[in-house]
Amino acid sequence: MPAMTKKSIALIVLIIGAMVIPFIIQNEYWLHILTLSFIWSIAVYGLNILAGYTGYLSLAHAGFFAIGAYALGLLTVKAGLNYWVALILACIITSGIGLLIGLVALRTREHFFAIYTLCVGYVIYLVIDKWDSLTGGVRGLIGIPAPSNIGPISFQSAISQYYLILFFLLATVVVMYRIVHSLTGRTFIAIRNSEELAQTIGISTMKNKLTVFVLSTFFAGLAGALYASFIRFIGPDIGYTTIIFDLLTYLLVGGIGTLAGPVVGTILIVSVSQSLQFLQDYRMLIFGPMLTLIIIFYPRGIVGMVSEWKMKWFNKKKKAPAETWKSTYSDSEDVREDKVKEG
Amino acid sequence: MLKLAGLSVKYGSFTAIEKVDIEVNEGELVVLLGANGAGKSTVFKAISGIEKWSDGDILFNGSSIKKKSPDRIVKAGIVQCAEGRELFGGMTVYENLVMGAYVHRRKKAQVKKSLGHVYDLFPILQEKKDSAAGALSGGQQQMLAIGRSLMSQPKLLLLDEPSIGLAPLIVEQMFEVIQKINEEGTTVLLAEQNANAALKIADRGYVFESGSIVVEGSSNELFTNDSVRKAYIGA
Ligand SMILES: Nc1ncnc2c1ncn2[C@@H]1O[C@H](COP(=O)(O)OP(=O)(O)OP(=O)(O)O)[C@@H](O)[C@H]1O
Ligand SMILES: [Mg+2]
Predict the structure, then answer these.
(1) Is residue A281 predicted with pLDDT exceeding 90?
(2) How far is B85 from chain A (nearest CA, A)?
C-alpha cells in the first residue's frame, strides 16, 4: 500500500507540473513543441497497446494518423461540420478503416505483418497524395479551424490548446492504464506470450487482435485529428513512411510495453531533436547509435532502465534476493503491479 | 464421449499420424503411449483445433468438431494442457489461473469456485499465488499448467506428458492428482512415455508408433504385453 500511495503522489506531482508548465516556460515556441509532443504521444500510445502489449508491430500507423488528420480537415473545411462532431467522426472513420485493414492484416504474423502494414501505410500515403480532388494532393489542406468554443471556453490561444491536448493525453493514459490492468489487457499479453497457448486456454485470438488493432488505430486517428486542428495545415507528408519510424523510435527509447514509455520517449526525443536543430539531418548520427545502445542494453527503454535500477536499489536495501527474478523473468512491469491489489 | 475416426494429420507433405481410431468414454482415464515423435502431441493438437486435419473426423459427444475454432472447443468442454508446461511467465500464479477461466470470465462466482478447487488439489499454488509463474520450480509449473487447464472446468482434459523432466517422487504425486481429477468426474486423455506410472492409473491405453496405433487394450493387457514391456517398461 505505501508503494501505491507513493506512486499516486508522484503522478499527482507530474500532473500539477504539466499544468503549471505554461506559466514557467513562458515561451511560445517551447510550449508549441511540448503540445506537439503530447499529440505524438497519443499516437505512440496507440502503437504501444498493439506492438508493445500484443506483439503486433504495425507500420501502418502513420497512415492512420494521416487518415484522422485528413478526416478532421475535410469534415471541417469542406463539409463545414462543427469541430467536435468532426473530431468524433474522424476517430470513427479511422477505426472503421482500421477494422477493414485489420481483418486482412491480422491473418499475417511477425515480420510478414510488419511488412504488410508497411505497404498499407504507404498506400494510404499515396492515396492522400494522388487524390487531388479530395485531399488537395501535394498542396495540402489549409484553413483547418481550431477547436470551437465550449460554452465560455475558447481554444484560440496557445495555452488553451496546450491544456486541451494535455487533457486528451491524460485521458489516453487513463484508458491505457485501465486496459492494461484488466483481463482484456492480460489477454493481449497472453497473445504476445504465445498465440497457440492463448488459443488452447480458450482465447479467441482473432477477435482480441482485431479489437486491439481497431483500438490502436482509434488513438492514431485521434492524434492525427488533434494535429490537424493544432497546426491548422496538413500535407500528405504526415502520412509518409518516415513518420512511423519516428513514432517507433519514440516508443523504443521510452519503453515498449510500458505505460509511461510512450510519453517519456516522445517528449525526450522531440525536445532533444529540437534543441539540436542546428545539426540538421546529422542529428541522426546521435539518435542512431543512441537507439541501438538502448535496445541492446535496455529492451524496455528508459522506463525499463529506471525500474531495473529501482529494483536493484530496493533489493540492496531490503536484502530480498527473492525479488531479483522480477527484472529477469517478468514480461511486463505493469501487469505485475496489479496483483498487489487483487491478490 | 470422444471419438477419432480414421484421423490423419499432415504437416505439409509429411503425414504425422495416419488413420488413427481412438475412443474415450465418459469418466475414463485413457493413456496414449509412444516414443518421441510418435505423434501423441499431434493428436492432441488436432483435438484442440490447433492443427487442421486432412482425413477422418473427430466427434465430441456425437458431433464433429472439424469446423470449430480452438476457443469454441474449450467452451464445448475439451481443454488441453500442452507439453512443456507453457505458462505466462510474467504473470503471477493467480493471474495464470484466472486466465485459464477465460471462457467463464463473466461468471465470477464460478471462477472463484474453480480457483478454490484448484487450490485444494495443489495447495502449493495457493501459497505461491502472488509469485511470478516464471519463478516456480519445474514441478510447481506443471501443477500450475494443469490447474490452469482445470479452471475452464473441462469435461475432457488432455494432458500431454505431464511427467516429463520431473523427479520420480514428484511424478508419483502428479499421477495421484491426475487420478483424483479423474475420480472427481473429469474424463482424462493422457499422453505419456512413462508407461509404468501411466498404466497404473489408466483404464485403457493405445500404443503409438510412427503415427499409427500398434497395440490397444486395457491397462492390464498392455502391462503384460511383451512388446510394450520391452519398449516402454524395460523388463
Ligand atoms: N509443426 C510441425 N511441422 C512439421 N513436422 C512436425 C511438426 N510437429 C511435429 N512434427 C512431426 O510429426 C511427428 C509427430 O510429432 P509429435 O510432436 O506429435 O510427437 P510426440 O509423440 O508428441 O513426441 P514427443 O514425445 O517427443 O512429444 C514427428 O515426426 C515430428 O517431427
Ligand atoms: Mg509430444
Answers:
(1) no
(2) 10
Which residue segments constitute the domains of chain A, with CATH numbers given?
2-342 (1.10.3470)
Q: Which of B70, B100, B149 sits opposite A199 (nearest CB)?
A: B70
B98 touching A, CB under 8 A?
yes
B62 plus B122 within the same structural domain: no
Hey, are the CB atoms on A201 and B92 less than 8 Å from each other? Answer: no
Number of residues that this document lists for chain A = 343
Check whether residue B122 and residue B163 sit in a common domain.
no
**Same domain, yes or no, for B51 and B164?**
yes
Q: Which position has the higher pLDDT, A11 or B6?
A: B6
Q: B17 CB under 6 A from ligand 1?
A: no
CA-to-CA separations, A140 to A130, A135, A244, in angstroms, rounded = 11, 7, 20
Mean pLDDT value of segment A147-174: 89
Q: How confident is the model at residue A67 (pLDDT cuts 50, 70, 90)?
A: very high
Is residue B143 scored above 90 in pLDDT? yes
pTM of the model: 0.87
Asked if residue B89 and residue B58 are part of one domain, the reply reads: no
Report pLDDT for B179: 95
B49, B68 in Cβ contact below 8 A? yes
B49/B37 same-domain check: yes
> For residue B224, how far is its CA from the centre of ligand 2 (angstroms)?
25
Q: According to the 3-state scheme, what is the secondary structure of A27-79?
A: CHHHHHHHHHHHHHHHHHHHHHHHHHCCCCCCCCHHHHHHHHHHHHHHHHHCC
Domain that holds residue B51: 1-77+157-235
Q: What is the mean pLDDT of residues B182-191?
A: 95
CA distance B178 to A190: 26
Q: Does residue A283 surpass a pLDDT of 60? A: yes
Collapsed DSSP state (helix, strand, coil) of residue B157: strand
Q: A55, A208 in Cβ contact below 8 A?
A: no
Judge whether residue A329 has pLDDT over 80.
Answer: no
B101 and B35 in a common domain: no
Q: What is the pLDDT of residues A89-144, one digit of tens each?
A: 999 999 999 999 999 999 998 899 999 999 999 999 999 999 988 888 888 888 89
ipTM, two decimals:
0.88
Task: Tell me if B95 and A326 make a contact (CB, 8 A cut-off).
Answer: no
Which three-class secondary structure state does DSSP give residue B161? Answer: coil
All three cell numbers of A209, joined, read 487482435
User: Inter-chain contact B70–A343, Cβ cutoff 8 Å?
Assistant: no
Domain count, chain B: 2
Q: Which of B48, B71, B89 sits opposite A329 (nearest CB)?
A: B89
pLDDT at A291: 84
What is the DSSP pairing of strand B156-160 with strand B78-81?
Answer: parallel
Mean pLDDT of all residues belonging to chain A: 87
End-to-end CA distance of chain B: 34
Same-domain pairing of B7 and B68: yes
Amino acid residing at A143: G
CB atoms within 10 A of CB A282: 9
Q: CATH code at B73?
A: 3.40.50.300
Quick one: B69 and B165 in the same domain?
yes
